[in-house]
Amino acid sequence: MSTPQGWQTPKTDWDSKDPVGVSDLNRMEGNLLAIETGERTLDPEQAPSSNTGTLRQILSWFANRIKAIMGTANWWDAPPVTLKATKEHIGAGGTAHAAVTTEEAGFMSAADKATLDSLAAGGGDYAQAVATVNSKRAGYAVYAP
């Protein structure tokens, strides 16, 4: 693991008779500055494995999760779809989503919604509704007690 730019190895062989000199203070101050402003290289290939890690590991884990969520090559790439665009799309109606068919997934038709609403309200013919649903969704049978 690389050290931040400007980092100097700390003195570890202090003796009680050693005076603290200007070079020692400059090294300490420089290391604090290197910690605060030194460049770091993240590794977005590191997948999170726990809640404990070095600052660099945790930042790399965030980069990994951002990349995974966006599905992009790099974590810093522009998102393929923004949250604003998603919000505008949800509930847009019209031709945003087609009604479901036996061949294609989609949303429920108005007739199917009316049928389900009448069943939920205690009306309608449950057996007929089950038969209708089963006839429209080949391979997916609804259990009728």
Question: What would you note in describing this structure?
Answer:
This protein is mostly helical and 145 residues long. It folds into three domains: 1-39, no CATH class; 42-80, no CATH class; 95-136, no CATH class. Helices cover 42% and strands 0% of the residues. The chain has helices at 22-37, 55-70, 83-89, 110-120, 126-136. The radius of gyration is 31 Å and the shape is rod-shaped. It starts with 21 loop residues before the first helix and ends in a 9-residue tail after the last helix.
Describe, in short, the structure shown.
The protein contains five helices and no strands. It has 145 residues and is mainly alpha-helical. The relative contact order is 0.07.
Structural class determined from secondary elements: mainly alpha
- Low-pLDDT residue intervals, each spanning 5 or more residues: none
User: So what's the overall shape?
Assistant: rod-shaped
Which band does the percent of strand residues land in? Answer: under 5%
Share in helix: 40-55%
End-to-end Cα distance, whole Å, is 64 Å
Average pLDDT value? 78
Radius of gyration: 31 Å
Largest sheet: none
Run of helices and strands: HHHHH
Number of helices: 5
Question: Count of DSSP E strands?
Answer: 0
Overall number of domains: 3
